[in-house]
């Protein structure tokens, strides 16, 4: 059964040509080979302000570019989110994007007083792909993958997205061509499965 996939490219460099972009391309190619529909959101190419107050976050004023992203996510079955690890977490631009997109009314809705928020994005799955300079096991073991866990629990999970899977690629700068090819082949296989 074909699925609708949205790729959220979170690398903040609008010039592209980073390994995050190659991983996304491999995933998209695999998905399209078997008939999945793929759309992309290149966060670095979007223009939006940083939200600075609770009132701005809760405002119903949503920019047209952000509205298009919300529409794509709303109709997706699966999200692929890619970013490089910067200072232990996602780059600031990607966090600002999530703050713009995952607002009240879209990602979650208020329930009756004293009740939990209603999750608005249930029924969707996600894969988070993170590239980093350190060994991936060290990020998990020593740092507890805290930035990754925050995205999973406090943004995606809070909106009802699940299951959420992870792919961590460490030692990117020192990786051999053979290793990079294996990683890209693995991403292509995941794209075929829409996982």
Poorly predicted segments:
none
Look at the structure and give the CATH class. Alpha Beta
CATH hierarchy: architecture: 3-Layer(aba) Sandwich
- How many helices does DSSP assign? 7
Percent strand equals 15-25%
Determine the CATH topology: Rossmann fold
What is the tally of beta strands?
7
Helix content: 25-40%
Mean pLDDT: 93
Outline the biggest β-sheet: 5 strands, parallel
Class derived from helix and strand content? alpha/beta
- Write down the domain tally: 1
| Helix/strand order, N-terminal first | EHEHHEHEEEHHEH
Provide a brief overview of the structure.
This protein has 195 residues and is α/β, with parallel strands linked by helices. The protein has helices at residues 19-33, 54-58, 64-75, 92-101, 136-141, 146-156, 177-193, and strands spanning 4-9, 37-42, 78-84, 108-109, 118-119, 125-131, 164-169. The strands form 2 sheets. The protein has a 5-stranded parallel beta sheet with strand order 2-1-3-6-7, sandwiched between helices.
């Amino acid at each position: 059964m074909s699925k609708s996939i949205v790729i959220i490219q979170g690398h903040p460099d609008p010039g592209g040509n980073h390994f995050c972009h190659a991983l996304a391309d491999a995933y998209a190619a695999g998905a399209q080979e078997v008939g999945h529909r793929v759309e992309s959101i290149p966060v670095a190419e979007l223009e939006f302000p940083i939200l600075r107050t609770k009132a701005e976050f809760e405002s119903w004023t949503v920019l047209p570019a952000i509205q298009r992203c919300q529409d794509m996510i709303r109709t997706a079955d699966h999200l692929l989110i890619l970013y490089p690890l910067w200072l232990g977490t996602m780059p600031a631009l990607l966090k600002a994007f999530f703050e713009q997109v995952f607002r009240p009314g879209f990602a979650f809705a208020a329930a009756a007083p004293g009740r939990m928020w209603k999750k608005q994005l249930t029924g969707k799955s996600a894969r988070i792909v993170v590239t980093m300079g350190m060994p991936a096991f060290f990020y998990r073991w020593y740092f507890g993958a805290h930035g990754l866990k925050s995205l999973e629990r406090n943004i995606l999970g809070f909106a009802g997205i699940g299951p959420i899977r992870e792919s961590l690629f460490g030692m990117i700068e020192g990786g051999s061509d053979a290793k990079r090819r294996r990683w890209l082949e693995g991403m292509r296989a995941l794209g075929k499965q829409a996982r």
